[in-house]
Every structure is written in structure tokens, then in C-alpha cells.
């Protein structure tokens, strides 16, 4: 009975979470409007996040256009709900004691009817946040873009293009940042009836922030963005506005304040309910994700075939370059069984493009015949914010999946350059099962000094990696030209081994650091430590 009740609550939580996610992503639009192309999509061609809003206005595009042209802080405002504007004025911009609050006007402002591509429009006091006009066609569309810090800004001179560019380059280089495009599109339905569509597309750094902001920002935008569209409609069709007009500010204010007081308990209960449902959905999402990854691990281990020539002998080493022979003897594999499966545990720190180290924990599972692996990891990106996912190479295909709070995908990629990257990852991680270096699909050639090049062919791809060894046989470093998923191209990659340890009589690297070597300098991205390693234990931890 209790189990059925738990399942029912879990299903209800997932259903509500799914509904909230859809609400956050789109309101007032058809499937064609939500998924079709719009002017401005090219500004951010491959967004991490996208939100779509729409409204029908009983007016012509030409009648609506003047209200769009005068948008902007210090201009006509954004026509958002007055309660929202007052909150921003007092608590975000903190201008209550400096400037009196001015609601968005109910008239066309002739002084703000001139707008051109390249203009910079304020989105806060002293252009601490701003938008660039990227495209416009009168009575058809208006497209903005913006690059800003997610929660703070500094005043800037909008006429100083060099200062604006320097600010944007600094944000891209150091992060965090929020980049977005904002497209207002007018589509005539009849002579006096128009669809007004609003699409926001965004890329965010660091990556985990995208998953964290996706649904919350979308739900805020339901109120803010939807309120803005309703504000535009009310102004373009002013007779529908009713008795609460700008000519009676005192009556309007008292009516709105009474409404706000009535709504506050409802809003508080709604927020509490959403938080509770979000927590339940996160727990259920984690269970579902863990079970799916567990099934993938089981399937990978079930594919394993017994390794040929089960015991490693000195004769097996004879065909290898001398530095590789030293390494395998140092690893103490002579006289041991060639492994069919390997599993290990890791911990350490991870960072994306120099944006701060975050702790992670991982499990990894390998099969040697056929060559395959699955790396399951969890990253603590911020207090109470966990990114969970896995990187898998199986059947010659790579697949990367990561989710914030086990719910919101921030990476879901398969194949392409990932195949080359994960093939090289498997080749480099032979350091944890050195007997794998004897496999028939791996060939070795000597290089100058204490180095050798390994070349592996699998799944229709061939890739090479250079191994550097110490005089006593320690594996010091691995180098390759490897696919970088974050940049979408091949880059120089290095894995450095700092310390060795023994696991079950096998001596392997136990701590180190991997980095990308860009033209601008080295960029370390992971500091790893192996805490456990076992061979031929074909089961999950």
C-alpha cells in the first residue's frame, strides 16, 4: 500500500514538474510558432535555453510598432506589471531614495521613435546592463542581444564601443555570463488583428548555470514577459484598459495595492507548493537517472568477452618498444591474468574553461574485449546544486549525458567528434589496466627518448597517443590531439601523473591532472585521484 502511494506521489511530482517546465518554456504560442524559425534566431544559432511567448492584439502591426520602438530603461520602460517594476526599482536598482518611480507611459513618445541597428539601449541605470539592436524591420520585427553578468553590472558609456567590446570580451573570458537574444515579431492575421511573438534564446556560462536557471527564469518570464505582452496589448488597444487609467493614478494605486494584499497569501502558498514539488521531482529524477545508468553499466559488463592468452608472460612483451616493456614490468603485470573487466572509483576537482574548481566523485567501468567504458560522475556546482551524468563509449559510439538536479539536461550528445575523443580517453586510461596495452587492436612504435606512440583502431576510427615514461618505468605523461567538446574542435591534450599506488598488486597512477593546451596557454580541467581499483569484478559498486 505504502509503495503504491509513493509511486503515485512520484508520478504526480514528475507530471507537475513536466507541466511547470512546459509552462516555463512556452505560453500563448502554437507548436508552429514555438518550433518554427523567427527573425533573430541567427543571433544565437545554437542556444542552451529558449522561451517563447505570444499574444493576439486587436490592432494592426503599424499601430503596435511605435510601442515596441520606444522600449527600454529610461525610455518607455518595458510595460511589465507595475508591481514588478516597483520591485526592480526599489530592490534591484535601489533607486527609491534617488529617483521617484515612474511607471511605463500610456502614450507614444516622439523623442524615442528613432531606432537603428547598432543602437545601444539601457536595461538598467547607467547602462549597467544594456541591449544592442541587432535587426529591425518596421512593423515586422525587432531583435535585441545582450551579454551580461547574471547578477551584477557596472556602469558603462554606451557611446564608447571599445569599452563595450572590452566588457563583453572580459565576460566571455572569465565568466560567469548570460548571453541572450530577444526577438519581438509581428505577424498580421487580419487588417486589425496581429500576433505578437516574443522569443528569448540564451547561452550561459558556466554550463551548470543553464540547468539551474532554465525553469526558474522561465517561470519568472511567464509573469514578466507575459505581463509585458499584455501591457503592449493594453496600450495598443487602450479602450480595453477600463477605468484604471493613467489620468487617475491614486485610484489605480489603491486598487492595485488591495489586489496585491489579497494575492500575497496565495502567492506564498503557491511558492511553497512549487518548492516542495521541485524537491520531490528532484528526488524522483535522481532515482530514475540512477536506475537508467545502472542498466547501462549492466549492459556494458554483459558484453565483456574473456581476454585471449589469459596470463601475461615476458614473451608477450617482446614485440613492444623498450620503454613500454619497462612500464609493464614496473606495473607488475607479468604473471597476472589479463583482465576482462575493470572498475574503479575516483574523486577530485573539475572546472570548465577556468571558471573555478568544483569537487566531483565518479565510478568507472571498463571492458577490454570489446573496448568500452562508462564513467558515472556527480559534480557539486554550488550548494544544493548537483550535476549528475555519465560519459560512455560502447560499440564504437560515444555518448555524453549530464543533468542538473538529475532533471534538467545540460549535455546530451552522441557521436561525431565525441567518438574520437572517447577512443583516445580509453587509450589514455590504459594506465589503470596496463595489460590492455597488449591488445591486438593497439600497435606501438618507439619515439626518441623514453617515449612511445600507441595507435588504436576501433569502430572505424584510428587515433594515436604519445606515452612518456621515466627511467624506472613510471608512466609520467600522455599527450594527444583530442576532440574538445566545449570548443567543438581538436586541441592539444595532456594527462600528467603525479603519484602511483598499488591496488591488488597492480602498480598504477593514483593521482594527476589533465589539461588542454590552447594557444593562449594551458587550461587544466580535472584533478583526479583513484581511491579504489579492481579487476575482473563484473558488477556495479
Task: Kindly describe this structure.
With 541 residues, this protein is of the alpha+beta class. Helix 3 (61-69) packs across helix 6 (207-236). The protein has a 13-stranded antiparallel beta sheet with strand order 13-12-11-10-9-8-20-19-18-17-16-15-14, sandwiched between helices. A 7-stranded mixed beta sheet has the order 1-2-7-6-5-4-3. The protein starts with a helix and ends in a 6-residue tail after the last strand. Mean pLDDT is 87; it is low at 240-252. Helix content is 32%, strand content 35%. It is elongated. The chain has 2 domains: 38-242, START domain (Alpha-D-Glucose-1,6-Bisphosphate, Chain A, domain 4, 2-Layer Sandwich); 307-535, Lipoprotein localisation LolA/LolB/LppX (outer membrane lipoprotein receptor (LolB), chain A, Clam). Strand 17 and strand 18 form a beta hairpin. The longest helix has 54 residues, at 249-302.
Short description:
The chain is of the alpha+beta class.
* Strand composition percent: 25-35%
Shape: elongated
Instruction: State the share of residues found in helices, binned by percent.
Output: 25-40%
CATH level 3 topology of the largest domain: outer membrane lipoprotein receptor (LolB), chain A
Strand order of the largest sheet: 13-12-11-10-9-8-20-19-18-17-16-15-14
Number of helices: 10
Q: What is the succession of H and E elements?
A: HEHEHHEEEHEEHHHHEEEEEEHEEEEEEE
| CATH homologous superfamily placement of the largest domain | Lipoprotein localisation LolA/LolB/LppX
For the biggest sheet, the summary is: 13 strands, antiparallel
Pairing-aware structural class of the strands and helices? alpha+beta
Number of domains: 2
Name the average pLDDT.
87
Amino- and carboxy-terminal Cα gap:
31 Å
- The CATH architecture name of the largest domain reads Clam
Question: Number of DSSP strands?
Answer: 20
CATH top level label of the largest domain: Mainly Beta
Amino acid at each position: 500500500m505504502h509503495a503504491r502511494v509513493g509511486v503515485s506521489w512520484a508520478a504526480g511530482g514528475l507530471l507537475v514538474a513536466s507541466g511547470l517546465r512546459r509552462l516555463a518554456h512556452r505560453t500563448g504560442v502554437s507548436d508552429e510558432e514555438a518550433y518554427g524559425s523567427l527573425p533573430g534566431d541567427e543571433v544565437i544559432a545554437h542556444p542552451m535555453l529558449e522561451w517563447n511567448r505570444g499574444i493576439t492584439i486587436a490592432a494592426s502591426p503599424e499601430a503596435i510598432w511605435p510601442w515596441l520602438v520606444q522600449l527600454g530603461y529610461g525610455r518607455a520602460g518595458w510595460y511589465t506589471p507595475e508591481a514588478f517594476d516597483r520591485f526592480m526599482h526599489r530592490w534591484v536598482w535601489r533607486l527609491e531614495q534617488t529617483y521617484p518611480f515612474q511607471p511605463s507611459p500610456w502614450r507614444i513618445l516622439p523623442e524615442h521613435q528613432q531606432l537603428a541597428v547598432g543602437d545601444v539601449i539601457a536595461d538598467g541605470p547607467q547602462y549597467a546592463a544594456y541591449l544592442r539592436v541587432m535587426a529591425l524591420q518596421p512593423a515586422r520585427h525587432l531583435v535585441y542581444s545582450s551579454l551580461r553578468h547574471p547578477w551584477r553590472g557596472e556602469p558603462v558609456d554606451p557611446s564608447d564601443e571599445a569599452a563595450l567590446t572590452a566588457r563583453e570580451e572580459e565576460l566571455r573570458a572569465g565568466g560567469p555570463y548570460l548571453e541572450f537574444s530577444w526577438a519581438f515579431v509581428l505577424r498580421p492575421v487580419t487588417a486589425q488583428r496581429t500576433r505578437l511573438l516574443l522569443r528569448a534564446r540564451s547561452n550561459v556560462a558556466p554550463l551548470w548555470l543553464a540547468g539551474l536557471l532554465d525553469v526558474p527564469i522561465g517561470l519568472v518570464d511567464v509573469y514578466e514577459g507575459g505581463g509585458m505582452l499584455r501591457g503592449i496589448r493594453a496600450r495598443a488597444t487602450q479602450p480595453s484598459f477600463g477605468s484604471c487609467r493613467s489620468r487617475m493614478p491614486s485610484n489605480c494605486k489603491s486598487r492595485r495595492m488591495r489586489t496585491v494584499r489579497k494575492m500575497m497569501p496565495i502567492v506564498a502558498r503557491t511558492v511553497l507548493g512549487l518548492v516542495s514539488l521541485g524537491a520531490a521531482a528532484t528526488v524522483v529524477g535522481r532515482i530514475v537517472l540512477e536506475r537508467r545508468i545502472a542498466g547501462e553499466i549492466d549492459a556494458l559488463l554483459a558484453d565483456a568477452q574473456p581476454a585471449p592468452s589469459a596470463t601475461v608472460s615476458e614473451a608477450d612483451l617482446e614485440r613492444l618498444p623498450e620503454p613500454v616493456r619497462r612500464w609493464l614490468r614496473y606495473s607488475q603485470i607479468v604473471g597476472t591474468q589479463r583482465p576482462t573487466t575493470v572498475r574503479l572509483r575516483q574523486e577530485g576537482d573539475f572546472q570548465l574553461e577556468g571558471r573555478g574548481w568544483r569537487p566531483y566523485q565518479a565510478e568507472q567501468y571498463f571492458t577490454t574485449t570489446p573496448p568500452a567504458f562508462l564513467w558515472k560522475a556527480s559534480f557539486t556546482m554550488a550548494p544544493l546544486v548537483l550535476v549528475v551524468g555519465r560519459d560512455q563509449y560502447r560499440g564504437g559510439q560515444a555518448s555524453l549525458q549530464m543533468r542538473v538536479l538529475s532533471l534538467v539536461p545540460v549535455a546530451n550528445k552522441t557521436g561525431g567528434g565525441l567518438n574520437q575523443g572517447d577512443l583516445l580517453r580509453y587509450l589514455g586510461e590504459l594506465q589503470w589496466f596496463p595489460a590492455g596495452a597488449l591488445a591486438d587492436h593497439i600497435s606501438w612504435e618507439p619515439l626518441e627518448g623514453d617515449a612511445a606512440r600507441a595507435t588504436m583502431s576501433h569502430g572505424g576510427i584510428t587515433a594515436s597517443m604519445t606515452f612518456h615514461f621515466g627511467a624506472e618505468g613510471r608512466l609520467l605523461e600522455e599527450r594527444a590531439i583530442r576532440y574538445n567538446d566545449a570548443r567543438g574542435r581538436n586541441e592539444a591534450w595532456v594527462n600528467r601523473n603525479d603519484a602511483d599506488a598499488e591496488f591488488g598488486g597492480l602498480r598504477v597512477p593514483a593521482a594527476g591532472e589533465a589539461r588542454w593546451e590552447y594557444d593562449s596557454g594551458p587550461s587544466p580541467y580535472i584533478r583526479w585521484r583513484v581511491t579504489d581499483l579492481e579487476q575482473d569484478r563484473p558488477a556495479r559498486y
